[in-house]
Amino acid sequence: MASQQSKLISDSDVTIVGKVTTAFGIKGWVKVHSFTDPMKGILDYKNWYLKVKGQWQSYKVIEAKPQGKGIVAKFDGIDDRDLALALSQVEISVLSSDLPQLAEDEFYWSQLVGLIVVNKNGELLGKIDHLFNSGAPHDVMSVKGYEGSLDQQERLIPYVDAVIGKIDLDAGEMQVDWEADF
């Protein structure tokens, strides 16, 4: 099962890299939806943290591998289907300090979620709710209206160099070349 943590792990200590979807078979394996790119990147981490009952708990991955179009994993101490099912829809994270260092102009999606988005006209378009791979050659940001934004409309903005301007993580802001009426 989960190992005991002498230090409580907080949301700011981890980066979400996937989620358990459901059980796989009867011996405690789980199906995993990976948020990493490439999908198999999640397999580079052997200690995963699962958010169980509101707290991040360490789970040791005994074995994990690609299976069909997804990934399956086996955790230490999860030995039957009922224990595996109890982890359904639980987020998987790794310690942020274990992630590879990025170049100065690169960002993890988790760093961008929550940034406010302002266009070159100074109009507040909203806040980044999530990013996703649309199947196109670029990722897409879902920017949703919030307090102070032009409106409450959701905008889908491509994450491409021609659109993305200055990103200031400290200020919590991203500038984009995107008209409000797009």
TrEMBL record:
<keyword id="KW-0963">Cytoplasm</keyword>
<dbReference type="InterPro" id="IPR011033">
    <property type="entry name" value="PRC_barrel-like_sf"/>
</dbReference>
<keyword id="KW-0698">rRNA processing</keyword>
<keyword id="KW-0690">Ribosome biogenesis</keyword>
<comment type="subunit">
    <text>Binds ribosomal protein uS19.</text>
</comment>
<dbReference type="GO" id="GO:0042274">
    <property type="term" value="P:ribosomal small subunit biogenesis"/>
</dbReference>
<dbReference type="GO" id="GO:0006364">
    <property type="term" value="P:rRNA processing"/>
</dbReference>
<dbReference type="InterPro" id="IPR002676">
    <property type="entry name" value="RimM_N"/>
</dbReference>
<dbReference type="GO" id="GO:0005840">
    <property type="term" value="C:ribosome"/>
</dbReference>
<feature type="domain" description="RimM N-terminal">
    <location>
        <begin position="17"/>
        <end position="97"/>
    </location>
</feature>
<dbReference type="InterPro" id="IPR056792">
    <property type="entry name" value="PRC_RimM"/>
</dbReference>
<dbReference type="InterPro" id="IPR011961">
    <property type="entry name" value="RimM"/>
</dbReference>
<dbReference type="InterPro" id="IPR009000">
    <property type="entry name" value="Transl_B-barrel_sf"/>
</dbReference>
<protein>
    <recommendedName>
        <fullName>Ribosome maturation factor RimM</fullName>
    </recommendedName>
</protein>
<comment type="similarity">
    <text>Belongs to the RimM family.</text>
</comment>
<dbReference type="GO" id="GO:0005737">
    <property type="term" value="C:cytoplasm"/>
</dbReference>
<keyword id="KW-0143">Chaperone</keyword>
<comment type="function">
    <text>An accessory protein needed during the final step in the assembly of 30S ribosomal subunit, possibly for assembly of the head region. Essential for efficient processing of 16S rRNA. May be needed both before and after RbfA during the maturation of 16S rRNA. It has affinity for free ribosomal 30S subunits but not for 70S ribosomes.</text>
</comment>
<dbReference type="Pfam" id="PF01782">
    <property type="entry name" value="RimM"/>
</dbReference>
<dbReference type="Pfam" id="PF24986">
    <property type="entry name" value="PRC_RimM"/>
</dbReference>
<dbReference type="GO" id="GO:0043022">
    <property type="term" value="F:ribosome binding"/>
</dbReference>
<feature type="domain" description="Ribosome maturation factor RimM PRC barrel">
    <location>
        <begin position="109"/>
        <end position="180"/>
    </location>
</feature>
<dbReference type="InterPro" id="IPR036976">
    <property type="entry name" value="RimM_N_sf"/>
</dbReference>
